[in-house]
């Protein structure tokens, strides 16, 4: 297990920090969101007392997957598990686990998971990359249409039932769910090796 070593000198110890009590709410534990919180937490002359992160699965870096399984995820390699552990943002940031469903700008509040209310003075949206289920075009493939002849479905959103073997891998929890499904639904060959059926 890694440990963090934080060094401070006499000058910074004796110098009073300016306390900032403004309610700063960050939505999304993306790389930008984590970097923003890190910058505020480790600011040498300011102390932010009211930082809140709203995220579907809380703070990243829980080590749910091994190195091989994590290759499922697209990564920009800005933070790894050790970085998250050394930052220890859970010591400085209030974490609300849920999905932001509405923003009330007049009342300066966000609605989380349709029921909980989080007040803010400053709201920072850092939702990051979010893959979606592709929307079928409805094209008749027996007619062999070209891309120009197919209606653009970029603005449409798929709201129908999602097949049980279709996964959108946005985070470690999604990867763990996909891996569990693959292990439970794989066909074992005669030689004992498992072959995967299908996974998007």
From TrEMBL:
Any idea what this protein is called?
A: Cilia and flagella associated protein 61
| Source species | Catagonus wagneri
- Name of the gene this protein is made from: CFAP61
